[in-house]
Amino acid sequence: MKWKNEMRECVRTLEDLEEFVCYDDSERARIAEILERAPMAVPRYYLSLIDFDDPEDPIRKLAIPSLLEADPSGSLDTSGEADNTVVNGLQHKYRETAMMLSTNECAMYCRHCFRKRLVGLPDEGIARDLEAIGAYLSEHDEITNVLVSGGDALLNSNEHIAAILDTLTAIPHLDFIRIATRVPVTLPSRITSDGALLDVLGRAREKKQLFMVTQFDHPREVTPEAAASVRAVLDLGIPVRNQTVLLRGVNDDPEVLGSLLQKLTSIGAEPYYVFQCRPVTGVKNQFQVPLKEGCRIVEGAKAMQNGIGKSFRYCMSHVTGKIEILGELGDGSMVFKYHEAKDRRNLGRVFAREVADDQAWFE
Ligand code: SF4
Predict the structure, then answer these.
(1) What are phi and psi of 53, to 5 degrees?
(2) How far is the CA of 306 from the centre of ligand 1 (A)?
(3) Closest to 283 measured CA to CA, from 150, 64, 116
(4) Is the pLDDT confidence value at 122 over 90?
(5) 106 lines ligand 1 (CB under 6 A)
(6) Which of 287, 313, 326, 331 is buried deepest, with most CB atoms within 10 A?
(7) Cβ atoms of residues 168 and 208 within 8 Å
(8) Which among 24, 71, 123, 134 is positioned nearest to 280, based on CA atoms?
(9) Ligand 1, pocket-test mutation among 182, 242, 250, most atoms within 8 A of CB
(10) What is the chain's Cα-based Rg?
């Protein structure tokens, strides 16, 4: 099958990478160290989107390791995921929503990933016991929806995806299931060349409403191949919604972000969230944009949209909840609102806070 061949041909090693990038001896040693902690995988399809003549190419930054990843500041679990784990691989942070870590594999290991502690590494935190997960969900009828995440949920085998969806669709109080995947962006053939996967998704869709949540970060990722994979999912009656991460050097420009949101709306991948990049070790130094600057970029991008393209929220996934970043006041402070909250007393709470011009997160 085409996508399996593409996975076999991924660029994974320093030697593979040196076909495209030149390193001196010191750089080679430092990149090798980074790859020990944060593996690389780049499908040839995604590689074809990179302009290797441009060291500042935004697509390259998303896929190819940088020496900036050696910076040890930050945290590997910025949202407190370990504290919210109720069964191995299942998190229950918000009352109505559970989240399953279904695999530690992805088609591509994004350099800005907030789950660097997990992706491509040993899989202790991954959901293996579907029976235990089904039992927990069945006992908690306040849970109305499950996000099947990873890693990349569509990097599971078709058989395992079917088993997960069979477990979830059998639970009467679940209203819908979300599938989190970046394959429409990084490996669209996973969807377009595998009719059996579409059959699995289509059968589950007959039993329960499914949504697909994906992550396009730059307008050049919205290719005809990507659009075809989104279309194949939409044709099953599964809406596709997109979460973009605001990233320095990638989409930190109102025109670039605005163009991305326009293209996404045009292919039916509705803009859902723009996320503030988290202070993840090996990520924050390279990719975080300060909150005030982020707000101006997002507002500029929003001004280029109509209707659906404006319906997303600009949020930070904080340890205390999902906090919407509403805007700046004239006195140096900013206004925020709890969109989701771990402590339900915070739900909907609006608050203002002093924010320094270079501040990109808060404790
Ligand atoms: S696909 Fe998602 S989970 Fe996987 S590396 Fe990229 S951002 Fe991380």
Answers:
(1) -75, -15
(2) 29
(3) 116
(4) no
(5) yes
(6) 287
(7) yes
(8) 71
(9) 182
(10) 20
- Do 112 and 176 meet the contact criterion of CB atoms below 8 Å apart? no
Q: Is 216 in the pocket of ligand 1 (CB under 6 A)?
A: no
Which residues have a Cβ under 8 Å from the Cβ of 294 and sit 6 or more positions away? 246, 252, 276, 314, 325, 360
pLDDT above 90 for 259: yes
Is 59 touching ligand 1 by the criterion CB < 6 Å? no
Per the structure block, which two tokens stand in for 265? 């709306």
What are the chain's domains? 2-315 (3.20.20.70)
pLDDT band (50, 70, 90) for residue 125: confident
110, 277, 281: which to mutate for ligand 1, most atoms within 8 A of CB? Answer: 110
Does the C-beta of 314 come closer than 6 Å to ligand 1?
no
* Segment holding 224, helix H or strand E: helix 224-234
Any idea what DSSP says for residue 221? G
pTM above 0.85, yes or no: yes
Average pLDDT over residues 185-195: 98
